[in-house]
Amino acid sequence: MLFQYLVLDILKILENERTISSPYHLLKGKRSGQTIQDVGIFHLHPYFGIFPKLSRKKYDEEIQKLVESQLIQITDNSFHVTPKGIQFLRQYEPLPLNGWQYRGNEHLFFSRLSLIVQSLSHAREKVMAFSPIQKDEEIQHWVRHFLLKNDYKSGLLGHNLYDEILQSLGKVQIKEQAKEIVVKRLTGYQMPGFTWEQLGMEYQMPELDAQILYVACLHQWLNEILPNRLQYPYLHQMSEHIRADIPLTGSAYHTALLFKQGYSIEQICRMRKLKQSTIEDHIVELAINDPAFPIEKFISKEDIQQVLVATEDYDTKKLKVLREVLPHLSYFQLRLALVRGENVCN
Amino acid sequence: MQLEQLLQTHFGYPSFRPGQKEVIGQLLDGRDTVALLPTGMGKSLCYQLPGYIFNKPVLIISPLLSLMQDQVDQMKQFGEKRAVAINSFLNRNEKKLVLDTLHRYRFIFISPEMLVQPQIIQRLNRLDLALIVVDEAHCISQWGFDFRPDYLKIGEVLKEDRPPILALSATATEKVLEDIRRFLKMRDPFEYIHSVDRPNIRFGKKVFQTREEKMEWLLDHVTQTEGPGIIYTRSRKRTDEIAAQLLQLGISVSSYHGGKEAEDRQFIQQQFIEGALDWIVATNAFGMGVHKENVRQIIHDTMPSNVADYMQEVGRAGRDGKDAIAILLYSEGDEEVARFIAGEDLPSETQMELYEEYRNRKVDPKEMIQDGFISETTFRVLHYWMGLYPLEEVKSIFRKMMNEKYRSVDEMLRIVKSDRCIREQLVEYFGQTFKDKPEHCCEHCGIDYQQFLLPRQDTKAATAPSTWQMRLRQILLGTD
């Protein structure tokens, strides 16, 4: 049911504005201009890339369930959430997710942690032969390096890591169930972890719900670890490069560098041999990520204000409608205004 | 020095297991050798010990990437750090680094695809190797079930003046053996063929009128008798169905197939090995790399597509040498499923024509995979043959292969339907003769099931730690 809540919550925000597929791309973390821009315009940061492996089939099944239980109605170009759907939404508390910042990297953090914990658990029992829970060579390499650097043989590392996890995870504001799920995905000497199916059965929830709680817990946990390097030195090492400072797609990053050097959009187009619309997508992405980004270079303060008034008057963020209302502004300018406008209002 | 002493020095074992000494002795004399040894009988020792004795690198050609990684991991676990895998998982820099430092490794695992790359074979041919090992050598035979076209080229790329070849396999018929000798260009090889018979496994069989009756029997049997056991079936969906029903009956069970997340698969394997799970319901994806000694039961929910698969799956029971039982279930029409599965990986005529069409349009046929027209495994085989012969000939080759696969299903079916001793038929299939028949040999010789199947103990799951803090403590600090 959590997953349905999650989808419904997104659908409520995109109601009448986007197609039924939009939440799918958002949850998958699709790196396309449209999806990234929607994150900015509709403030969907928490949900971006929560389920990188979600299959379209599974998603469609869940949508079908929402339709069948009359929580949403599909319309010709879009959909809307029924009063029953609104009721349903109210039963839940918002999930503490942070998708935009972690972008699936929380799984990398957990992979490192789980292999380290497994290794320490076996080392404690003097068993040096075991089948590593993580098969990825890069992770194995990273962990080997970590263990050697931190002198795992002394036996202290296990104790210290235990203390760090106890403290930091203890501080995370999320229900205990979510923490149990995270710890049950760890494996140790003669203590195998539990499959999603098993966790779902134990807590009597669909597997996807268990996974949502797991991801939410990892996000909150990382929020606790990252600013406190001195307090959690080992966990902090495991969080290395987990949160991107400038969470941009690779190509947008190049554009950002050129833009910062003072090149204009036209110049960047020529230098990078890319279409203007692509560079504009990048600029919008920059504006989403950086609240201090000077969008006034592209659109005046008065025009921004006009856009915001129009969105309220017409109760829409549809670019097509806004363009008709404000024909003197380009789509690019409208998108920038929408992205930033929210920030000004908040 | 005596071989036994060397074994003691390098591995700490006092004596060899059957076949090892003979094989190693021949290799040390420089003779090519084919060794058919059942899984779990210490195949790898046959090349590890010569590697240490010659004090030179050993090249091991291995077809399955996951298996290769397992082998390297295991060697490292047992303290041999000079093991490396050269396969498509390596990126360009890693590959270069490995190739530049190749002489420092003692055990070099390589996939056949990599071996045939000119740059790599040149580098390898410059090394002074102790031995060349071809693991899972049956993959060389197009009549085998895991045919790997690149295996055919192994014999061609090796230089004339080469060290002895050791071809290893668990099971092979005479026909496959002939292919191994021919394509690897082996010179009057010594052959060690271990008996395929496993006297401690009893072969049961149950025939049902309908699938429903079969399912009923299966559920009843698993609730009444003691594991640990593996139930093999042929589709992912079916593993989930059976597991779900058994779970409802309170059995400690999980399904296992390639569609599950990698970590979940690991958890299931570990739980089964640790004894936290009594039963696994699996496709044939389960078993490789899973070392569990005390599997007491193997049940086939439906007949496998060929006898070799059946033997391999059954062979996972009773590795500890104690009594174990295998029960094959059959209901009318199961052979149809088996035929379907058997032909699944072979390309259809439509796919062959499509390949031709791509080629004519000057599009890389490999794009058929991305376009969703063909699986990667199927493409690999198709690609190989299309590179050698014109379309019509390829079609006829695959028709022949398909018939061969159907024939294998029929061979399996014949054993299922026959009233003769099952053990005898299985052993004969591999062209071997049969020594002593154990008591309670098989369904037709008569089995007193109660002697082998203990009634199920309703074991209460060991009380797991109740909070996350306690679990964490137990994992990292132990119970003290």
Automatic annotation (TrEMBL), chain A:
<dbReference type="InterPro" id="IPR008308">
    <property type="entry name" value="YpbB-like"/>
</dbReference>
<feature type="domain" description="Helicase Helix-turn-helix">
    <location>
        <begin position="253"/>
        <end position="338"/>
    </location>
</feature>
<dbReference type="InterPro" id="IPR036388">
    <property type="entry name" value="WH-like_DNA-bd_sf"/>
</dbReference>
<dbReference type="Pfam" id="PF14493">
    <property type="entry name" value="HTH_40"/>
</dbReference>
<protein>
    <submittedName>
        <fullName>Helix-turn-helix domain-containing protein</fullName>
    </submittedName>
</protein>
<dbReference type="InterPro" id="IPR029491">
    <property type="entry name" value="Helicase_HTH"/>
</dbReference>
